[in-house]
Fold:
Amino acid sequence: AKAMIKLINKSFKEGNTNLNNTTCIEKVLRIVHVLWSNDQSSMKSTLVGENNLDFINSLTWILKVHLDDNNIKMVNEAMPLLKLTIEVAADSTLLGSLGLEFFKEIVRVLRKRALLSQQAIKSALCVLTETSTSGRNRTRIVEAGAVTELIELELEKPEKNMTELIFNLLALLCSCADGREQFLRHAAAIAVVSKRVLRVSAATDDRAIHVFSVIAKFSASNEVVLEMLRVGAVSKLCMLMQADCASYLKEKARDILRLHSKVWNNSPCIQLYLFTRHQR
Structure:
C-alpha cells in the first residue's frame, strides 16, 4: 500500500500526465481500493498526518486533470478513494487546510454526474458532508457552487439514500447566509424541498424542515414568504402537523407557520385552525 500511494504522490508532484503513466495510475488506484477493502486498519495507519494530506492533494489533482479531459474511468476510480481518505482525516485538523480548489473539483464531479458512476456521485456527496463540519469549509463549499448543483441533482429524482445525502448537505449549507442566498437564487429550490416532505423518509423531513426554518427566520423577504405559499411549502407544513411523525417536527412546523401567519392565514388554501391546532 505504501508503495502504491508513493507512486500516486510522485506522479502528482511531477505533474506526469502522459498516457503510459495515466494507464499505470488507473491500475494503481484499483489496487489501493482492493487493499483498502481487505485491510482498512493498515490503510488508515499508512495515511496519517502529512501522508494523508499528500494523498488528498494527489487524488484532487487526478480529479482535476481527468475531469478536464473527460477521462471518466479515472474519475470513477479516484472519487471513492478520496471519500475513504477524507473519512480517515475526519477527526484531524487536516480538513481545515483544504482550499477552495479542492471543493471546486468535488462540485465539478456533481456537475458532470451524467457521465459518472453513482458510486462516484455518492462519494462526492459524502466528501462534502464530511468536510462541512467547519463553518470555514461550508463557506468554501457554497462558493464552489455546491448548493445549485445539489438542487439540480435532486430535480433528477435520485434514489432515496442519495436524496437523504443531498438534504443533509442543504441543511448544513443553508445554516450560513451565503448558502441561503445561493439556495434562494435557484428558481426551483423551495419547490423541490417542499415536494420531498412526507415523500422520502423521516431523515429527509427533518432536514427539509430545518431548511425551511432557517429560511423563514433569516431570509424571509416578502417574495420568499409568498413563494413558500405559492409552491405548496406552507401547505406541506400544515400537512406535517397532522401527519404521523415525530412531535418535535410538528413543533418546528408550527413555529415556522407562526413566523409569517399574518401573510399566510389570508390564503384560501390554509385553514386558520391549522396554525394553532396541537397534537391530541
Q: What stands out?
A: Residues 272-280 have pLDDT under 50 and may be disordered. The chain is about 75% helix and 0% strand.
